[in-house]
Amino acid sequence: MAAQSFSSLDKALRKKLEKLGLFSDFDLVLHLPLRYEDETQLSSISEAAPGNTIQIEGVITEQEVLISPRRQLVYRVSDDSGVLYLRFLNFYASQITAWSPGTRLRILGEVRAGFHGMEMVHPKCRVVRDNMALATALTPVYPVTAGLPQRTLIRLITQAFERLRRKQFLREILPETILSACPLPAFEESLSLLHCPPSDISMESLQQRSHPAWQRIKFDELLAQQISLRCHYHQRRNQQAPTLSQQVSLQQVLLGVLPFSLTEAQHKVVAEISTDLAQPYPMQRLLQGDVGSGKTVVAALAALQAIGNGYQVAVMAPTEILAEQHFRKLSGWLVPLGIEVGWLSGSQKKSLRSQELAKTASGATMLIIGTHALFQEAVQFKQLGLVIIDEQHRFGVGQRLALRMKREDESSLPHQLMMSATPIPRTLSMSYFADLDVSVINQLPPGRLPVATRLIDNNRREEIIARIREACLAGRQAYWVCPLIEESEVLQLKTAVETYETLSQIFPELSIALIHGRLGSDEKSAIMAKFSQGAVQLLVATTVIEVGVDVPNASLMVIEHAERMGLSQLHQLRGRIGRGSATGICILMYQRPLSVVARKRLQIIFEHNDGFEIARQDLLLRGPGEFLGTRQSGVPLLRFADLEEDIDLLEMARNVAEEILRDYPNEAQHHVQRWLGNREDYLRA
After folding, report:
1. Which of 220, 318, 322, 385 pairs with 37 at a CA distance of 20 to 30 A?
2. Which NCBIfam families does the protein's record reference (predicted)?
């Protein structure tokens, strides 16, 4: 009903509102102010001090249009205590006529020191009419768009608020038992205060969003998100999945032939995954582990549990290099156990692809590894029991669902294990991943030393070249990473091709190869095989080697234009080295001038080796929208709550979500509908 009132607005006006994401009366009342102005009191001109925002009232005594140094309109305004100048760089001819000498103005703005004395630039001005009263509440300033002035938006929000209030659409939804345990004001009262704050309220508490009214709005937003995600979590337990009993003997055979022992953290997550797979409902678990923490062997053990029960396993990776790396490693472990491992990629020859598709469809291949090619229509499984997705944040929601839907039994879903070497900060995990079970490998294998990171200016290339020569002649291997393949006039970055040609001339005594994303699959495989075998000493590469490459003898990496890369990418690249006995050294070469953000990123990667701390800093730097990537494509991000500052509210919302779902399911549904509307389904993938 509220939406009908909104839809009766003029079409052009509705389009402007829709640009702000406002599609209903409820959207309007949740369009909260960015800041506030205090028009409830007047100050004298003599009180004007640089940096202060005040409201004064005075009479125009002089008016002048200046031509130099640029065209501007200047007013001299006075009251009984002094003189203030008003400066307008953009103005209309009608303004000159309307505000002539002798006109009394009420003026609000920030004071600064000008050439002739105190002045305001483009202040807010109104002509004073007879007995014009001061405002009795703080004036809200809303986010607007072109062609939609503040006064129009204020009028629309006020009207929407009154309509919703009359229809009781702002009534309290949350049960009294819930509210009594949460020391927060009522919902309608909070909204009313934020749109029209009394003059005696703390402006600072409003601006910093720490006022109890703000706390209530943020809590309700977080609660809607938590209810939706937990609801999906519980609904999943009503779905069917194959019950995969533990296969201890088969797993022990693999563990017995591995040249290393599992860490305590690996044992813990293997047990968590094993318990999930034995349940009759689909596992939806996220396995987090820093670069080199040993996620692949955990995935292999999970795969054995499915295969031991007669079910197929699909492993999907975002790049061919990573997928092929998984194929080689898992084949080496599982083929000796009598398990056939298959490989599918978009660049495969048609004959090979047809063979792999046939063996997968017949069930001869029990473990199939590939890229996005795995969820294409032609790929059919005989009995898919487990889907493992590596670097899950690189796949969109639709891509992951398409792979899960590839099962023969329509009544049963495969289990799903998602892996990520980009650790998710705790607050983000609590908020956006509340529909998942999360396992964390927070321990590196014994003897794995942290990589030493060096920040070196581009002007010191000769020093870096000397280091490369020294390392390679000593029998070690190195990477030289470039961000682009082709020259970009905009970014003016060194290209991998140019760098390869230059380094080939500098190091005639070394074996150098070039790898990038545009090479064919066979070419990339051949180059990586030579590098892994030690036949190539220096590998010039794009960020195609970011994940999955494991060459223990490579102990040195140079990353050009490191200032252009994100923290996660830098940390992933750095994780390619230091996997052997020699200490890894990662040289981040940067070019001045550095932006503030680039400087901060380099500082973070230099000071931290812990992926979880790097991820936390990255979240603070970028915000959740950028950090989440494609997983949450289309999901409404939090508008009001701040995950770092509002951790207490998030904890409270998590606890309340479980209680309200259990004891008040109808109220839970109404609360989610109020906040998310039709967008709630996005949270379920």
Report:
1. 220
2. PRK10917.1-1, PRK10917.1-3, PRK10917.1-4, PRK10917.2-2, recG
**Residue 656, class by beta-carbon neighbours within 10 Å (0-12 exposed, 13-18 middle, 19+ buried)?**
buried
pLDDT at 84 over 90: yes
558 closest CA partner among 472, 439, 490, 435: 472
- CB count within 10 Å of CB 253 equals 13
Residues 376-405 have a mean pLDDT of: 70
Phi, psi for residue 55 in degrees, rounded to 5: -115, 125
For residue 161 the two structure tokens come to 């608020």
Q: What is the pLDDT of residues 480-512, one digit of tens each?
A: 998 765 555 444 456 788 889 999 999 999 999
Tell which wins on pLDDT, 19 or 685.
19
Taking the complete model, does pTM exceed 0.90, yes or no? no
* DSSP class per residue in 448-500: -PPPEEEEEEGGGHHHHHHHHHHHHHTT-EEEEE-SBSS--TTT-PPBHHHHH
Question: pLDDT tens, 588-643?
Answer: 999 999 999 999 999 999 999 888 889 889 888 877 766 665 444 444 568 899 88
Contact 312, 366 (CB under 8 A): yes
Q: What is the CATH number of domain 46-134?
A: 2.40.50.140
Q: Which CATH number fits domain 248-441: 3.60.9.10, 3.30.1330.20, 3.40.50.300, 3.40.50.450?
A: 3.40.50.300
**CA dist 105 to 41, 48, 75, 81, 129, Å?**
14, 16, 11, 15, 9
The mean pLDDT value for 369-390 works out to 87
Q: Enumerate the β-bridge partners of residue 341.
A: 367
More confident residue, 239 or 300: 300
Query: Do 541 and 479 form a contact (C-beta atoms < 8 A)?
Result: yes
Q: Model confidence over 141-195: pLDDT tens digits?
A: 999 998 899 999 999 999 999 999 999 999 999 999 998 888 899 999 999 999 9
pLDDT > 70? residue 401: no
Class of domain 452-608: alpha beta
Counted residue by residue, the chain has a size of 685
Q: How many CB atoms lie within 10 A of CB 156?
A: 20
Contact 64, 74 (CB under 8 A): yes
pLDDT of residue 632: 44
Q: In 337-379, at which residue ranges do the beta strands (DSSP E only) sit?
A: 341-344, 367-370
More confident residue, 587 or 403: 587
pLDDT on residue 670: 93
From 350, 598, 577, select the one nearest 453 (Cα to Cα): 577
Q: Any idea of the CA torsion for 122, 128, 132, 133, to the nearest 10 degrees?
A: 30
Query: Is residue 37 within 8 Å of residue 199, measured between CB atoms?
Result: no
Higher confidence at residue 3 or residue 678?
678
SS3 content of the chain, % helix, strand, coil (to 5): 45, 20, 35
Rounded Cα–Cα distance for residues 561 and 455 (Å) = 11
CB-CB neighbours of 638 under 10 Å:
18
Identify any residues that bridge with 119 across adjacent strands, giving them in sequence order: 85, 112
Scanning 237-312, the segments in alpha helix (DSSP H) are 248-257, 264-277, 295-308
Same fold yes or no, 46-134 and 452-608:
no
Q: Which helix (H) or strand (E) holds 428?
A: helix 426-432
| Distance separating alpha carbons of residues 199 and 197, to the nearest angstrom | 6
Distances (CA, A) of 180 to 84, 108, 557, 653, 665: 53, 42, 58, 14, 18
